[in-house]
């Protein structure tokens, strides 16, 4: 039976990492991580940007993408993306 791990990650609209759980950092082999693009391939980042763009504040979306682990291998993960706050406060 497969083991599932849960990680917490909070990012801004530019995928800068605001907060990452210790388990997530250990999984990626990083002590510190400034941007999600450092561990997610470009094609997957494009998909993440598209999902973030269409997810309205207060809504959530489920997306699967690959992430590079501490051994440099790509692994698939599933993530719930939630948009918090008003994206366009001046509009």
Describe the structure concisely for a colleague.
This protein has 91 residues and is an alpha+beta fold. It has helices at residues 22-28, 42-54; strands at residues 9-11, 17-20, 60-68, 74-82. It has a two-stranded antiparallel sheet with strand order 1-2. A two-stranded antiparallel ribbon has the order 3-4.
Protein described:
This protein has 91 residues and is α+β, with helices and mostly antiparallel strands. It has a two-stranded antiparallel sheet. It contains 2 helices and 4 strands, in the order E-E-H-H-E-E. The model has no long low-confidence stretch (mean pLDDT 85). The protein has helices at residues 22-28, 42-54; strands at residues 9-11, 17-20, 60-68, 74-82. 22% of the residues lie in helices and 27% in strands. It has one domain (9-82).
Total domain count: 1
Low-pLDDT windows of residues: none
Give the overall shape, derived from the CA principal axes.
Answer: globular
Cα separation of the termini: 49 Å
Sheet bearing the most strands, described? 2 strands, antiparallel
Percent in strands: 25-35%
Classify the oligomer.
single chain
Number of strands: 4
Please name the defining characteristics of this protein.
two-stranded antiparallel ribbon, alpha+beta, 22% helix, 91 residues
Q: Secondary-structure blueprint of this entry?
A:
Blueprint: E1 9-11, E2 17-20, H1 22-28, H2 42-54, E3 60-68, E4 74-82
Antiparallel strand pairs: 1-2, 3-4
């Amino acid at each position: 039976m497969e083991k599932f791990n849960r990680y917490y990650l909070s990012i801004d609209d530019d995928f800068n990492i605001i907060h990452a759980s210790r388990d997530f950092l250990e999984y990626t082999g990083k002590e510190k991580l400034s941007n999600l693009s450092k561990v997610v391939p470009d094609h997957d980042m494009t998909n993440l940007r598209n999902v973030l763009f269409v997810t309205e504040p207060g809504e959530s979306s489920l997306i699967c993408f690959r992430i590079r682990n501490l051994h440099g291998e790509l692994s698939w993960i599933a993530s719930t993306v939630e948009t918090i706050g008003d994206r366009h406060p001046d509009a």
